[in-house]
TrEMBL record:
Residues 15-139 form the Histidine kinase/HSP90-like ATPase domain. One of its GO terms (molecular function) is protein serine/threonine kinase activity. It holds the Pfam family HATPase_c_2. It comes from Azospirillum thiophilum. Gene3D superfamilies: Histidine kinase-like ATPase, C-terminal domain. This is Histidine kinase/HSP90-like ATPase domain-containing protein. Keywords: Kinase, Serine/threonine-protein kinase, Transferase.
Length: 143
C-alpha cells in the first residue's frame, strides 16, 4: 500500500462470517467520508464477501481464532484494497476452478464463479504469498 495516501482504512477482522457486516459498513462509511463514487462500495463489498467467505470457510485447518486484515486506500485515480490472512496458501486467481458459464444453473458444479466475479469487477486482482501470509490486492479506477 502507498505510504503517501491519506485516505485510508485499516481493519482487523476475526475469522467469522459475521464480520462481513462490520466490514461492509466500514467500506460504505469510507466511500461516503472521502466522497468516492457510491458504486465502489458495492463492488468492493462483493469482492470482500467472496474472498473472505472462502478464506473463513475453507482456508483454516483449525477452528481457532485468526485475524484477517483489510486495508483500503484511495487517491485521485483509484481505490485499492489489500486483504491479508494466515490461512493455508491459496491463490484464488490461479487455483480456483474456472466457472461453468454455459450449463444450466442447476447443472453447474459449485466453485469458481465468485472468483470470476472478483476478476471481472476489479481492474486489478493480484495474489501473492509473503511468509505465512496470503495477500490479495484489489484495485478499481475511480472514473
Amino acid at each position: 500500500m502507498d505510504d503517501t495516501v491519506t485516505n485510508r482504512l485499516d481493519l482487523v477482522l476475526r475469522n467469522e462470517l459475521s464480520e462481513l457486516e462490520r466490514l461492509a459498513a466500514a467500506v460504505d462509511e469510507f466511500i461516503e467520508r472521502y466522497d468516492l463514487p457510491p458504486g465502489l462500495g458495492f463492488k468492493f463489498n462483493l469482492c470482500f464477501d467472496e474472498l473472505i467467505t472462502n478464506t473463513v470457510s475453507y482456508g483454516y485447518g483449525d477452528s481457532g481464532p485468526h485475524e484477517i486484515r483489510v486495508r483500503l486506500e484511495s487517491d485521485a485515480v483509484e481505490m485499492r484494497a489489500e486483504v491479508e490472512d494466515d490461512a493455508a496458501a491459496f491463490d484464488p486467481f490461479d487455483e480456483a476452478p474456472p466457472p461453468d458459464l454455459t450449463s444450466a444453473v442447476e447443472d453447474r458444479r459449485v466453485g469458481g464463479l465468485g472468483v470470476f466475479l472478483v476478476k471481472k469487477t476489479m481492474d486489478r486482482a493480484i495474489y501473492r504469498r509473503e511468509g505465512d501470509r496470503n495477500l490479495v490486492l484489489l484495485a478499481k479506477a475511480l472514473a
